[in-house]
Amino acid sequence: MSVFVDTSAWYAAADRGDVHHHRAVELLSEFSGDLLTSDHVLVETWFLAANRLGVDVAETLVTTIRSGNARVETATIADLEVAAQIHDAFTDQEFSIVDRTSWSIMQRLGVHEAISFDQDYWIYRFGRDRRQAFSVHA
Q: Mean pLDDT across the stretch 62-71?
């Protein structure tokens, strides 16, 4: 069973000064072989790491992920449409487009577990009555 990895987890694993560093490394190791992420998360991870840790660290991190650390799923036009629907359904939230496309991909692939330190993963609900929640490892 796949576990989706959010930007917050990839970044925390790369930044030894991040408060979640040790937990991120532990979780990524625990679920190794079952990790899934998206192309949008890769781009967001690169920008965050480049701005905080430098371009060399960002390049190494993204290369490591792409080299088999996780399966990288490409967001589709349909995923972007679902992301827009999530935005319209949760007008009281400021969910990022990266998070919304991540959730769309997770739902499309039937993945209900995530590694994330982003509180939005605990807030978002899906399903017919919006009562289903992802199981978030943090």
A: 94
Beta strands in 18-81 (DSSP E): 35-38, 71-73
Secondary structure (3-state) at 126: strand
Residues 6+ away with beta carbon under 8 Å from 61: 10, 14, 45, 46, 49
Residue 80 has pLDDT above 90, yes or no: yes
Q: Can you read off the two tokens belonging to residue 14?
A: 């790369």
Element (H, E) at 98: helix 97-109
Helix-, strand-, coil-residue percentages of the chain, each rounded to 5 = 55, 15, 30
Query: pLDDT tens-digit profile of 99-116?
Result: 999 999 999 999 999 999
Q: Are 3 and 41 in contact (CB under 8 A)?
A: no
Residue 68 has pLDDT above 90, yes or no: no
DSSP category for residue 68? I
Q: How far is CA 85 from CA 16, 94, 113, in A?
A: 37, 13, 21
Q: Answer whether 0.70 is exceeded by the pTM.
A: yes
Q: How many other β-carbons are positioned within 10 Å of the β-carbon of residue 25?
A: 15
